[in-house]
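Subject: for your reference before the review

Hello V.,

The reviewers asked for a structural picture of the protein, and I figured it would be easier to keep everything in one thread rather than splitting it across files. Below is the amino acid sequence we used in the manuscript, unchanged from the supplementary table.
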Amino acid sequence: MKPLVHILWLAALVSNLAAKQPNIIMFAVDDLSDWISPMGYQQAITPNIDRLAAAGVTFQNAHTAGIYCAPSRTALFTGRHASTTGCYESQVYFVSDPEIKPLQVALQEAGYATYGGGKLFHHVEGQIDLRGWDEFFHRSTELKQQGWPLKDWQASSPHLPQPYPNSKYNRSEGRPTKAPWFLEWGVVPQDQAEEMADSIRTNWACKKLKQPHDKPFFLALGLYAPHFPNYVPQKYFDLYDRNSIVPPEYYETDLDDLPERIRKQKTGRSKIHLHLEKIGAVKDAIHGYLASVSYADAMLGRILNTLAESPHAGKTIVVLWSDHGYHHGEKFDWGKHTLWERTSNVPFLWAGPGIAQKQKVNTSVSLIDLYPTLLEIAGAAEDPKLDGTSLTPALVNPDAARDRDVLLPGLKPNEYAIINQRWRYIHYADGGEELYDVIKDPNEWHNLADKADYTEVKKALAASAPEHFAPPAYKKSDYKLVTEGETFKWIKK
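And here is what came back from the structure prediction:
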């Protein structure tokens, strides 16, 4: 097939997909790394994620757009990196820049009915952007009156194991961190399973799917799982044999070749992993996480089953993403907040009419691409200010995918990673650098940044970074959250 003919053919397919304005279901999970079998991990039991992958396209080399929840979700809903918005941490984009049109508003303007619920935005008070939703579901009227926080793990929750905290880590002497929800896992009584926040939200979304709709809909559901605390019913723990769990590989001198500041920081953080090893709880922690992954998978199953039985089957696209990955002791870290692979590589799966089936795409993409992709699928007007690239050509014809450098901003200006299929280059604001050949060194154990042979590689990758990084947006301490009944607003002090 000649290149020009191929381009015209592909353009026609993409145009046909957008012209039909398919319904869109967006299923978001929290803290799910690449620990799913469609991405090569064999220990997680996720039959519904596997089912979604078999029906569509899995991006193997997809990366988050922010290194923890708040900046990642801001990037997703604005289609702009922190280097553009200044939202590097917990800044609220619709306060700092209310002119930015969020994803749900763009889809509403394109003719979509918009429904959202659960953890789509950051979980604390005043973070949910309520603009542009025909309905945004919250399970609690009381919490709406507090500024719409989620508070899924709070001690007031009805579905906490007893005693609380429950995990071997949090009940051990000398644990390095004292937050009772961190590295916390336990069993929820089966008779309380439907009272769990994620179960309630999923059931709400299923009710929406069963209803008739006179125009295309955008249904966005955000789960808190598998974020800590890993509280799920016993049956999800029973899927796994704790003693047979194989932890990731750990490299004793992993931190030795890092830049000084990050080496000191992560050496301090390593105390968490060393304590887990001391009390023999590494497998227990992974067990709790995997149980929560399987619970989240079961919620996806409810959505997929309801969709299959609904009048919307065959005309609905489903996209699944996680806001970022998670370290389980790799590089001696437990958590996210890093510019390394374990934080950045995330599930990003698409399926539905017009999308190729049973395909894996290995080229580098970013969650920043979600917004422009959905705009194109919805037949909405383009937004030239978006930082991402539409993935629609790759969804229609995976062979059309081409690798590129993708950006992952850190927590401050001039701190970032540039990622492609071969390399990960990390630049810290203080000038510290890391470079990994991720083909030869997939665990990122050997930092090449100080080796003279790689000077040109670093230079070429750094050239893909933004020329200008926006200063951090407003300081949260300069604003006050004011609630008025079931609404809220931020006012400057």
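For the response letter, the relevant points are probably these. Residues 211 and 310 are 8 Å apart (CA to CA). The radius of gyration is 22 Å.

Happy to draft the paragraph if you're swamped.

O.
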